[in-house]
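For the sake of transparency, this paper describes our internal protein records without simplification. The remainder of this section carries one protein's record, kept here as part of the documentation:
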Amino acid sequence: MAMLRLEEVRVAYGKVQALWGVSLEVGESEIVALVGANGAGKTTTLKTVSGLLRAQSGSIVFEGERLDALSPGEIVRRGIVHVPEGRKLFPEMTVFDNLLMGGYLAAPLARRQRLDRVFAVFPRLQERMRQLAGTLSGGEQQMLAIGRGLMAGPRLLMLDEPSLGLAPILVEEMFRVVGEINRDRVTVLLVEQNTQHALALAHRGVVMESGRVAIAGRSRDLLADETVRKAYLGL
């Protein structure tokens, strides 16, 4: 059984239809890459799963439970954590306090354990612990955004464009970190502009086009299919 399943999900921004019956699945301990052109509906899909947007119709099921009517806070409590595009940090708060905000629902012992894990994944954050988040470099801010997400103890971590705006060497590091997080048995739904990297890392890929799922399958198959590469992936 899939950990997360979307079936025929439709979403609109006012009169503008953004998703037209999107169906996809994410299995436990998988990395699934959601790729496609700008405006294809990738970010809208993540926002709908996390409760920031409401579906007009269709269903969203996580570990056998419908999410459609739950608030974003209730969805976080069930183990779904969304790290949005643009990081959305608290710039006037320290690195440490930003991390604590991510773990505010956790008991003290769990919070301490998660903090230790975040510092193991991102040693730079421990070095910058007392620094204001707004003074960090772009790469460090992205580390902090993901670290804050990990503090919530996700079973499903949704990452929206984690490599956006990063230098090439930091892009490589970011993908390495996503793989490390997944090896800790955290399921990952990844929206990423860097299609080649995303599919090389992911177990499966879902290609979106104009608010619909155009094609889905094993990442290696999508990367190897010349028609798919030219038509949908720009490779």
